[in-house]
Amino acid sequence: MKHETPISKTRLKKDMAALQDLGAELVALSGEQLAAIDLPEFLRDAVMDARRITGFEARRRQMQYVGKLMRKVDAEPIRARLEAWKSPVRAQVEQFKRIESWRERLIFEEGALAELLREYPRADEQHLHALIHDAQRERDENRPPKSYRALFQALRALLEKRDK
Fold this sequence. Notes:
The structure is a single chain. By secondary structure, the protein is mainly α. 79% of the residues lie in helices and 0% in strands. The chain is built from 8 helices and no strands. The radius of gyration is 25 Å and the shape is elongated. The model has no long low-confidence stretch (mean pLDDT 89).
């Protein structure tokens, strides 16, 4: 006979904290987003109450109550819906990081432009070279980053064009 190992107190506390955080995300949603999620009536009412409460301590207690109610529902569909709404934002953040990375490499690394041109053969080499050169000069002369910003915009247009 095989007996199950009990769940540790720490694991239970982490799970409850995660449910309370999920409840806090529900409270932070817009009315339209909240209406789009299928919630049991008792949980929807508690979330709506939490949205109306302005007092710090009363709101904290209500948030704990929402977390407690979250234990009575299947949180996975709720979590999946919230993640789906976050995905486009994550994609934008990743795109922004890629553009930033290319810009920094182009300004500070020799040969980065050649690598960019291999990856993006339709890029305007002369325009990018001029922007890189101007951005480097702005940095060296401690001038406003006009070309630095323009380089970012050019890279964004280039990367978005290929991603489509």
